[in-house]
Amino acid sequence: MSVLLVIGSSMIVLIHTITHGKHPPNSNQRLPASGGGRTFEVSLKGSPNLIIADHQLQNKRLQDQKQDKEVEEPSDEEGGSNVDNERHYIPDEEEGESNNEENDDDDKEIEEAGEQEPAPAQVPTLIHLRRTTNEANESLNSQPSKSVEGEKYLKSALKALFILQQAPGQKEKSAPIYTRFVGKGEGEEKYWINSSATDDDRNKWLAKMKEANLILREIEKKSFVSLFGDINNSNVNSGSSDSLNTNKTDKKVVVKDNKKSNGGQRREGFPSPADNPSSSTSSHVILAPTIGSHRCHSDAIFAFAEGYDLNIYLGFIESLQRTGFSGDLVLSVSSIRSLKPGVEEYLRSFTDDSNGNNNIDEKKMNIVVYTVEWKCFDSNGEVANGANEGTRRCELVGMYGNDENEVLVDWRDARPVATARYELYWAWSLKYDPHSWIMLIDSRDTYFQLDPFETAIKTLSNDEEMKEIEDNGLLYFFGENFESSTIGQSKFNSRWLNEAYGKKNVSSFFDQQIICSGSSMGEQIAIETYLRAMVHQFDRTKCKMKGCDQGFHNYLYYSGSLSNGVGGIRETVVFDQGKGIINNLAALRIKTLKNWGVLKDGSMDVLNWDGSVSQVVHQFDRDDELNKFVKNKRKAFKNEWKLRKME
Description:
The N and C termini lie far apart (54 Å). The chain has helices at 107-113, 133-142, 148-166, 199-223, 225-228, 310-321, 343-348, 417-429, 464-467, 491-501, 503-506, 524-541, 548-558, 593-596, 624-646; strands at 2-4, 14-16, 38-42, 52-56, 253-254, 268-269, 284-285, 300-304, 328-333, 366-371, 373-377, 383-384, 393-397, 400-401, 437-441, 446-448, 473-479, 515-523, 569-575, 582-584, 616-618. The chain has a domain at 2-62 and 133-228. By secondary structure, the protein is of the alpha/beta class. The chain is globular, with a radius of gyration of 24 Å. The relative contact order is 0.15. It has 15 helices and 21 strands. α6 links the parallel β8 and β9.
């Protein structure tokens, strides 16, 4: 169970129990023995006050479908793309676009890999847990504070506050609330304190609630070890894919990197990507931005955007700017000498004034650009020019240095740029405060409709002392459409997992929802942990197939590797397609978006399933009508840019 909050001019609360596909197995959450649950969601439309809806979630298992079912793949000649993650991209002749950014996997890659397709997945139990049914029932019956009774009580407590907010004058609209059930005691008011309370009273209240929460959790950990796993070990495996065993754990590794801008904070879990295990030489990130500079207090969007025509940058950046976003946009682009015409001038326009001087407006979007050098190899192992739309394996040049800041050779095996980009993201994440929000998103096929951080849940207020209370953060993942395909029904997703981890270690995930690796977000403290985990997956599996990063992403979630005491992550939440901040559209291409009822006539807004406007549209090019609309918007943006240059 979790409760998310905002303290400020409005309060937004999301209360939900765990239901299939929403939380990873082996997490510190309590699951009803039946695998069911009830959800209390928040409508963010209209009033800034709470609007709570209560509805029964439905089990969407597709067990009546054949296991060898595969979503029909349109041919490349039709301008189609595979349903899974980022796919093969057919550029417009007019735009001359190329794509070496993301996982544009096609049948050619499958043939080159030279392996058989995985056998049809067996449908195992509904939820895969390291506990028996009796243990689950024991948990449910003996720990009401973390299951049914606790949820009902906490909902009641917050609903009482909601009623106050709905009253004339909107009383207590900025009242602080506590995010964990810690027992009934002292009445419903225990979980919130008057907005008029003094700082001293508020701090005492928070300290008291935190202490109660810690006491309760320690009791639970000792009483129900099977629910938490071994709290002295992480759920991180090491070794090759041949020897992986998801039932064993290794000792946690203390992160050695102390170059963090947020105080050199050290956390247990996955090793720092800057650490070379085969060398005694100390190393750290030396790669610096070519354009602009980071603002550590800002929210940020990270995107890999190399090799594109100016039109691609215009569609991505201009649509974002028009939402009112005022954070950092951090991009990895080609080396300056390799940029397409007009790209450098356009990117510099966001940070340089008319005289070429750096001029950052704190109230506007700020762009930070890294020009990254790659050393790529063809299929014969010979040095080649460029990543060839991501099919070649590459090494990072100039990423790490020693204590004298001398450049160190990339010690990792050459890998697809879609895999290596997570190292860049990790290095960038170190530039931000622990509770800044960070989004990782594909750039070529993403279009913004609303500010993506408008509804992001701030853990605590701007009070620095209050921020110390939470030493971890939220992590958001976003799923593909579950009715269209599962992991096991997708030959690509099942193959990536099999290739990286071995079928025996991942077949239990095959009836689960596909989670897109091209769209994630979270608080810095959580996203930094996730990025270390992603880099570590390559180090342990050595999976060099284009698309393995999506396999890493799904493995980390469904194996529970991001829970069970991993520092930095309080909770990982997966949003179903069309129900979160980012709307992944690829799996919907089996029919038009208008036929699905999620593309609005006239305005061409992409909608969530509840009819609200999606904040971020990902994979828009899978729908012909929407793709044409976005391309026309790019042309309009280009004309506007020409006019701005003339001013």
